Amino acid sequence: MTQNDSYKNRVELVQGTLDMLILRTLQWGPQHGYGISQAIRINSGDVLQVETGSLYPALHRLERQGWVRAEWKQTESKQRAKYYRITALGKKQLLSDQNRWQRVVDAIAAIMQTDPKRS
Amino acid sequence: MNLRRLWRSRSRRKDELDEEIQSHLRMAAEDRVDRGEAPDEVQDAVLREFGNVALVEDVTHDVWGWRWLEELRYDLRFALRTLRKNRGFTAVALLTLTLGIGANTAIFSVINAVLLRPLPYPHSDRLVYLSEWSPEIRFMYISMADFNDWRVRNTVFESVGGYRSADVTLTSIGEAQRLHVRQVTDGFFSTLSVKPLLGRLLTARDDKVEAEPVVVLGEAFWAREFNRDPRVLGQRLNLDGELYTVIGVVPNSHWHLGWPEVDAFTSLGRLQYAPGFAHRDDHHGVYAYARLKPGVSFEQAREQMWAIARQLAQEYPQTNSGVSVNMMPLLPGLVEYVRRPLLLLMAAVALVLLITCVNVANLLTSLVIVRRQEIAIRCALGAGAARLARQFLCESVLLALMGGAAGLVVAYCSTGSASAALVHLASSTVPRAEDISIDRPVLLFTLVISLLAGIAFGTMPALAAYRIDPNQTLMDSGRISTSGLSRAGVRGFLVAAELALSLVLLVATGLTIKSFLHVVQQDLGFRADGVLTASLSLPPLQYRDDSQKRLLVQQLVERVAALPGVKTVGFKFPLLGAAESHFLVEGRPKPEPENVPYTEFSSVTPGALEAMGVQILRGRYFNADDKAESEPVCIIDDLLASEYWPGESAIGKRVAIEAPVAPNGFGPWRTVVGVVHHVQYHGGDWPTLAGTYLPYTQYPSSRGSLAVLSGTEQSSLEPMLRDVLHSLDPNLALYDVRSLAEFMDEDLASRKLIVVLLSILAGIALLLAMLGSYGVMAYMVTGRTHEIGLRRALGAKPQDVLRLILGQGMRLIILGTSVGIIAALALTRVMRSLLFGVSTTDPLTFAGVVVLLVLVALAACYIPARKAVGLNPLDALRHE
Lengths: 119, 880
Hints:
A: 3 strands, B: alpha+beta, ten-stranded mixed sheet
C-alpha cells in the first residue's frame, strides 16, 4: 500500500527543529494547524510527518512566547478554523533558528565529507 | 478575583482548543473525501491518523501551565473535605488561630496607624522636626535668635516654622476662660501646607514687632464659641488683656500634632524682641518644623544645620558653645516615645502567634498519625512525596487563611472598642490613636502572616507524613505503632519549643508587671488623695508688679481656706512641673560653670506643702512671717541636706538659687529654715533631683496652682473655688481643675496599658502551652498504654508508672524551660529602657515564671499520667 510505503520513508524530526519548520511554513502566510502539518509533509516530499501530539503543543507554545498570533477565520470551504500568523518577534526567531541550523548542517557536512585516510 | 479571571480564561482556552482540533479533523476528512475515499471510512482513518485526541488536548493544554491551578483546586477541595471530616480538630485549630492572628492584626493595626501611616500632609516625608541640642538636654527649646539665624543661613529647607505653646485667658466673651494657644512664626502653616477654612493665615507681616495683634482660630474653638459663624472675621478677642483681631480659621484635622486642643494661633515672631525671647540664651518653649527642599536628603540637611550650629557656636561662644541642632524626620519624631512600647507589644503578639503555630502544628501532626492509613494508601497508589507535602501545606494554609479571616473579624470588632479604650486610657500618651483602623496594609499584613503561619505549622506534619512507611503502616492496619512518630521526636520538640516561647513572653510580662508595681508602690513623698488642684494665670498686663501678684494670691488662699470643708490650702508653682535651676552653697568654692549642681525648685505659699502632705523632717514650714522684705529663706529636701551637710543639721545654712537678672547670675543667700522629705514630683520612674522650696512672697510667679486638701467632693468644691476667684478678679480663669490623684493616673496610663495587654497575651500563651503539653502527653500515654499494661503485669507499681510518664514529660519541660531561659536572657535585654527599678535579668521574676510554667506543664502531664496509672493492667494489655 502506498500509505505504508510512504510511512517507511518518513524520518523522525530532529529535536528542536519543529518550531523552525512551523515558523518557516507560516512565512508563506497565515495557516491553521491542519494546513501546517500538510504543508510540512508535502514540502518535504512526504518525508517529514508532524505528529499532532507535537504540533499542537508547539503551536500553543509559540503563541505563548509571542512568536505567532492566533485568530479565528473562515477557511475557503467556509469552515471556522484557528489561523496562526507569524509575528515580527517570530520572524527574528526564525532567522536565528535558521542560522543555527545552517551552521549545524555545515558542521555535520564538513565532518562527513572528510576522507578518513587523508587525515 | 484574579484567580477567577485566570480560571475563566483557562476554560475559554480549553473550549477553543477543542474547537481547533475538531476543525482539524473536519478538514482532514474533507481532504480524504476529495481524494476519493469512502465517506463512511474517512472518519475512522482521520482519527487514527490524528492519534489520541484527549492526550493531544492534555499535552497542549499543559503548555499554558494550567496544571498547577487544577491541582491546586483538587488540593483545596480535598483539604476542605478533610477539615470538615475532622470537625473537632478544625474547631480547636481555628479557635487558636483566630486568637493568634486576631491579636496580631489588632496590634499591627495600632502600629500601622500610629507608627507607619504617613502624616496627612503633601510630601510629608520631607517634613522634619527641629530642636536645639546640648549635652544635658536632648530636646532643648530653640532660642529665637538662633531660630532666626537658622532660617536665614540654611539653604536646605523650603520653609521653617517655629511654634510654642502659650496659654492665655480670654475675657471678651462670657466668663473668663483659659485658651490653649500656639504661638507660631511665619512659615509654620506653609511648612505643613495647611490651608485656612476661612480668612487668611499668619504671614511675615504679622511677625513684625509693631504689627497689630491678630489671631487665627482653631475649628473646634470656632464651632464651640462662635457656632461656625463666618462673621467672626474681624472680631476682636481680649487675650491676656490685649485685643487680637480674628483673621482666619484653620481646620481641625491635625490630631497627631495635638491640634484639637489648640484653640487659637497667634504670632510668635511679634515677640522675638520681648523679654524672655530677645537674648540668645533665652530658650523658652520654642520648637520648629521644617520642610526639606525637593532633592535635598535628610542627611545633607542635617549636615548643614550642624554646620550652622558650629558657626553660631564660634560667633557666640558665651551662649552657644556645645549647643547643636537636633533634627528628626517629623513622623518618627512625633511617635518616638511610643515606638518602643508598641514594638514590645508587637514582639509579644508575634510570640503568641509562634506558640499558636506550634500548637496547631501539634494538632496537625496528631491528625497525620490518625490519617496514616489514608496517607499510606495514597503513597502506595503513587503519590509522590512532594505531592503529599503540597497536600498538607494546602490544608494548613487553608486553615490559616480561615483563621486569618476570623482573626480579622475579631480584630475589626475589637479595634473599635480597643481604639476607644486606647483613646480613653492613653490619648495623651499614644498619638494618632484615633486613626486606628483596618485598612489595606493591615489586610495585607494579616494575609501575609496567615500564609506564613500556614506554611510554618504545615511543614511539621508534612515532614511527619513523609516519614510514614506505607508498607509497614498498611501491614499494621489499624494498630497504633509507637515507632518514630508518637515518641518524643517531633512532637516533644514542639512541646519544648512551646514552653520556651511561653517562658520568654511570661518573663517579659513579669518584668513589666514588676516594674509597674515598682513605679506604683514607690513612695513619691506626697499625698495625692483628697487633694484638688486648680491652676491660675495672672495676665502680665494687669499684674505687672510682684505686689499685685502677692496680694491676689494671698487673698485667694485666705478665702479658700475659709470655705467649708477645706482643711488646708496653698499655692504652688510649678505644681508638679520641672523648674530646674543651678544653685550654690555658701562656704563652698564656686564650682566650674559646667559643674554647678541642679535643683528642682518651686515657689510655695504657707499651706501648700502641708496640703500635699510633704513631710517636714526638721525646722519649720513657711509661715506668714516669711514676707517679701524679710530675710530670704528656703526649705530644702533631705536629699540635698544629706548631700551637703551629712551628719549635721542643715538648718541655718545658706544656699543661692540661679537668677539670670542678678549680676552674678544668682539670687540672694537664703537661709534654710526647714528640711522636708524628698518628693518625686514626676512619678517614680523619673530621675531623682534634689528639691528646694522658696516662699511665694519672695519669689512670686504669675502662674501657679492651688492645692486644696478637703473632705469635699470636687463637684461642689470647684464652683466655690471659681466664685472665690471671680470675687477677687472676674477676668481670671481657673483651669485644669483636677484631683492630684488624676494627675498621677495620667502619668501611669501608658504603663498600665502595656501591663494589661501583655498580661492578656501572656495568659493566652500560658493557656496554649498547657493545652499543647496536655495534648502531646495524652497522646504519648495512649501510645504507651500497651507497654504500661505490660510493665504493670510484670510487677511495676503505680508510682513507678507515674514516675515513668512524668519523667518523660519532665525531660521536655526541662529542655523547654532551659532554652526559654537562655532566649529570655538574650531577648529581654531590649526591654531595658522600658523597665524601671527592675533588672532585665531579675532573678525573682525568672524564678517565679519558671516555677509557674513548670507547675502548669507538670499539671498538664499529670492528668494523662494519672489515667495511665488508673488503667487495669489487663485492659491496657488488650489495648490496641
